[in-house]
Design brief:
The structure holds 2 protein chains of 2 kinds. Chain A is α/β, with parallel strands linked by helices. Chain A has 5 helices and 11 strands. Chain A has a 9-stranded mixed β-sheet with strand order 2-1-3-4-11-10-9-6-7, with helices on both faces. A two-stranded antiparallel ribbon of chain A has the order 5-8. Classes of the chains: A alpha/beta, B alpha+beta.
Chain lengths: ~230, ~750
């Protein structure tokens, strides 16, 4: 079962459950942030988008202290897959489960639009359904999505092949013009060192049905579903 | 603490905006002089904003019932059945005055307020739209206001988790002194779980839930929203409330959760006039009374007087009447969301509002005379002296358009007709995963889910419309046109127009010319709503949109809601493939009065607005619903502002992929009217099954003719014979169109 964490102020929580459960037919439940333990059958965790605690301090800065995050950390340390989407990515960075930070978009506006991202590697548990070089069309919707890291850290992430998604144009070319928020290295999605924790700013849960933003999000969520159900890989 | 309050007399009553007659009424009702708190209560409840005293007479004439209408005006929102035990709950409301004074918070709290009007009825808000009107963007103040309002709407709506899926933005000199910010929201509820604002059941606890009360927004409804602006309006900034979308999000979830239990008897949001208005309305609706103890009201700051507690418009608060004995269950649910839920009083049986503060009675007045018997005025009307003058337009002496292609490019580059992407990309258009069609088309289309999260085949089509220039030229026709356009926009998706909500933005009603505009506009709206079978189920009136004697154009914004039974078939506003036939439904007439072309290219605002044929509009909507359901139309786009040439350009540009078109027009009317005239009742359609479409059109009595075909990279518009009038790369049109708003904002950065 996939546990979708629900903080006060989460707002893509129900959408994520809908995408996983109703569209991809994978067991998924909302888990209230005050719970100190994940349900026994948890085989993967998704931290959804939204504005946890209103994001009044710094995005994700309050949520990291919620009781459930200690359980998520134990789950991740034990090798369980954890996916953070948008605010979930921010929470993972604030929690130290992913390196670096997400700062204000360089143009200072919230931006909601569909963008292209290039899959840098096809890897279980998050991109096994895709292939390296594939271009996905996914929506972003955030005000603080510019990935930031020190030059040393960024160099290490690149060297270790941990940048999993990069903003690009429709043909897969990565350039400043295809960067919607000022992310360093056009980073859109990132892995931890062990490869079982991923954060991304685009919203795969809003791209799982043809008439509702297309189906490219299945490349990500479907991979996670495969990983936890032992489905086709 | 000793309560030291001003002595109430006629002078103080006048300072509270009450007339001498109203003050006499208060003395009669009470049989004594009111206390200071009581005076405050009367002044807000009887202020224009809450009492509708100038507009009531006309609002009563609007059609408000129908087979599908479950609750009409008088509730927090209108409720319309959409079948299978579900209902749509919706309303549009103004937040004009606060947004001018403080654009970010003014607009944000406008969104918050309209959301509460929806979820207080038990519905989960699923989508928002807005109608925004500013002065010209060459004015730095209005660039500031546009930025602030968009930031406020986005900041609140994005955070609260309700998608902003559409709206309108326009710019005109008449809004230089008063911008308009109208916010619409729609929610979905199971019919058997609709909640009303009723303080029923004597002895039941009255509970205060949500944010604590502070000193913000005191007299927002009376002093800010019910008076004109002048040079000192900045001093009113403290009357603007401050929004907290995070608390609102928690409040939505907690309220919807508690409403799934049977612990709640009635619930009402604390909006305009706060605790006062909500408690009076709830008691009045149930024919009961309420006893309140102000010391129990959660307070954000110390030393608040009863007057301040009663009139504060602090946001994100609700008043809830629970079943006796269920208080703990309510408290538990709200505590889970870290929200206050406090018993502040009881329902009583004597029809009186008794309010205590620190052991002293500060209010003791009968409920009904305050809530129901508020004054109804029959204000004098007078047709504006220059009204007939406005109609004068001599087409014969009007210089012809010699450069139609240049005109098209120029018009597309104006803020009035340019792309709105700069605005709507700052809004989360997707949250809740229901957005089939987002901003940028004729109407938005949102899927309906049940509260348990399961999807249904139904979708709601949503549109907000008004052409203020037409309403200024002729408020009766202009208001009819706004209703007709709303219905047409909704039908363009394939949805059947069901009902509407209105937001009536006008100047100072004490001026007979303004009241005449209001009377004419409501008459036109009523006639159109009846003819199209779309009752008016909710709305709001905003008067006093006037500064230093200059009023906005009459702006009766129409929010139309339609139902698409099966969202697997719907139409969008852009061309979808090459080689498809383009059909024009409706007729082009020689109408240029009030058009964008006339205003932009000739600098004239005059003439009669285009005529409106309501029977034609009703048949046109039927045709579109049938044609989309049949699957023979997949593109349908309303021909509106800027006329046929603009509509064609939009069909080419507004999809993900640009698609050109070649169109031939042989109408024998003058070229400007053909290309840029704004005759109503026209829709451009395209699809795969032309034959069926033409048969359906004939059966519905709608003129339909094939005018061209999609394909290529250029938009070509040509006469039957001879050189093309317009022959231009779609990409060049799109560049111009996309730059319209950003180019005017760049100079500040």
């Amino acid at each position: 079962m996939l546990s979708v964490i629900q903080f006060p102020g989460s707002n893509d929580d129900r959408d994520t459950r809908f995408a996983l459960k109703s569209v991809l037919a994978c067991d998924a439940e909302l888990i209230w942030h005050k719970q100190g333990e994940l349900p026994a059958g948890t085989s993967g965790v998704v931290i959804p988008g939204g504005f946890s605690y209103g994001d009044y301090l710094r995005c994700g800065a309050m949520a990291r202290y919620s009781p459930v995050m200690a359980a998520v950390r134990r789950f991740a340390d034990a090798g369980g897959p954890v996916l953070g989407i948008c605010n979930g990515f921010q929470v993972l960075c604030e929690s130290g489960l992913l390196p670096g930070a997400l700062i204000r978009n360089h143009h200072l506006h919230f931006v909601c639009q569909r963008v292209h991202v290039r899959v840098e590697q096809a890897l279980a548990p998050f991109t096994s359904r895709s292939r390296a070089g594939a271009v996905l069309r996914l929506p972003i919707k955030h005000g603080e999505g510019a990935y930031f890291a020190s030059p040393e850290l960024l160099g290490r992430l690149e060297a270790e092949g941990r940048v999993l998604l990069r903003y690009c144009d429709a043909d897969g070319n990565v350039s400043p013009a295809s960067n919607p928020n000022g992310s360093l290295g056009n980073v859109a999605g990132l892995l931890n060192q062990a490869g079982n924790v991923m954060g991304l700013m685009p919203h795969p849960e809003h791209a799982v049905e043809a008439d509702f933003g297309g189906r490219d999000g299945r490349a990500i969520l479907g991979s996670l579903v495969d990983a936890v159900t032992g489905g086709h890989s | 603490m000793n309560l030291v309050e001003p002595t109430v007399d006629l002078t103080l009553a006048r300072e509270h905006g009450l007339t001498d007659e109203e003050y006499a009424d208060i003395l009669r009702i009470l049989g004594r002089s009111p206390s200071f708190s009581e005076l405050g209560i009367f002044s807000v409840m009887w202020a224009e904003h809450c009492s509708y005293k100038s507009s009531k007479k006309y609002l009563k004439t609007l059609p408000s019932s129908g087979d599908r209408v479950l609750h009409g005006p008088g509730e927090n929102s209108g409720v319309v059945s959409i079948g299978d035990g579900l209902a749509a709950v919706f309303k549009i409301e103004s937040h004009n005055h606060p947004s001018f004074i403080e654009p970010v918070q003014g607009a944000a709290t406008g969104v918050g307020g309209i959301l509460r009007d929806v979820f207080t009825m038990g519905a989960r808000p699923i989508a928002s739209l807005n109608s925004l009107r500013f002065g010209p963007l060459d004015d730095p103040l209005h660039r500031h206001l546009l930025r602030g309002v968009v930031e406020g709407i986005g900041g609140y709506g994005n955070s609260v988790g309700v998608a902003t899926v559409g709206g309108e933005v326009s710019f005109h000199d008449c809004y230089r002194g008063n911008i308009l910010v109208n916010a619409f929201s729609v929610g979905v509820v199971e019919e058997e779980r609709i909640f009303l604002a009723r303080a029923g059941g004597v002895g039941n606890p009255v509970m205060y839930v949500g944010s604590k009360t502070g000193r913000d927004g005191i007299h927002g409804a009376s002093l800010l929203a019910s008076a004109e602006f002048d040079d000192d309006s900045d001093a009113k900034r403290p009357t603007v409330q401050v929004g907290d979308p995070f608390t609102e999000k928690c409040l939505i979830e907690a309220c919807l959760e508690v409403m799934q239990t049977d612990a709640v008897v009635g619930i009402q949001d604390m909006g305009a006039a706060g605790l006062t208005c909500s408690s009076f309305e709830m008691a009045s609706n149930a024919g009961t009374g309420i006893e309140l103890d102000l010391d129990r009201v959660p307070q954000r700051e110390s030393g608040m007087t009863p007057y301040e507690l009663l009139l504060s418009e602090s946001q994100e608060r609700m008043l809830l009447v629970a079943r006796e004995g269920r208080e703990d269950q309510v408290r538990e649910i709200f505590a889970r969301w870290d929200l206050d839920a406090v018993v502040v009083g009881r329902v009583s049986d004597d029809g009186r509002m008794r309010i205590r503060w620190q052991g002293q009675g500060v209010v003791d007045i009968p409920v009904d005379p305050v809530a129901r018997s508020s004054p109804e005025l029959d204000r004098p009307l007078r047709e504006p002296a220059d009204h007939l003058e406005r109609h004068k337009l001599d087409l014969a002496s009007l210089p012809p358009e010699l450069a139609p292609e240049e005109a098209l490019l120029e018009l597309l580059g104006t803020p009035s007709l340019g792309s709105r992407a700069w605005v709507y990309q700052q809004y989360d258009q997707l949250v809740q995963a229901n957005t089939l069609v987002g901003p940028g088309g004729d109407a938005a289309l949102v899927r309906v889910k049940r509260e348990d999260g399961s999807a249904t085949p139904k979708a709601l089509a949503l549109s907000v419309d008004c052409n203020p220039r037409w309403c200024w030229l002729d408020p009766y026709t202009g208001a009819q046109a706004a209703v007709a356009e709303g219905a047409r926009n909704v039908a363009c998706t394939g949805a059947r127009p069901l009902a509407l909500s209105n937001c009536l933005n006008f100047g100072n009603p004490e001026k007979p010319e303004i009241m005449w505009e209001f009377a004419e506009a409501t008459r036109g709206m009523g006639d159109a709503a009846r003819a199209l079978g779309t009752p008016v189920v909710s709305g709001n009136v905003s008067f006093y949109n006037e500064t230093s004697g200059r009023a906005v154009y009459p702006t009766p914004t129409i929010a139309m809601v339609g139902l698409l039974e099966d969202h697997r078939r719907y139409a969008v506003a852009h061309f979808q493939r090459e080689g498809a036939p383009i059909v024009l439904l409706g007729n082009c007439r020689e109408e240029l009065g009030g058009s964008e072309w006339l205003a932009q290219r000739r600098g004239i605002e005059a003439g009669h607005p285009p005529s409106v044929d309501l029977e034609h509009e009703a048949r046109l909507a039927d045709l579109l619903v049938a044609a989309v359901a049949e699957g023979c139309v997949s593109t349908a786009h309303d021909v509106a502002d800027g006329g046929l040439a603009i509509a064609l350009a939009e069909c080419c540009m507004s999809g993900d992929t640009q698609i050109g078109a070649r169109v031939e027009l042989a109408d024998s009317i003058r070229l400007e009217a053909l290309l840029f005239g704004e005759s109503t009742g026209r829709v451009l359609v395209s699809g795969d099954d032309l034959d069926t479409l033409l048969v359906l059109a004939e059966a519905h009595g709608i003129p339909a003719r094939r005018i061209g075909e999609t394909g290529g990279r250029r938009l070509v518009v040509a006469p039957g014979a001879g050189p093309a009038w317009i022959d231009v790369e779609v990409d060049e049109l799109a560049k111009q169109w996309k730059r319209a708003i950003p180019a005017r904002l760049e100079e500040d950065t």
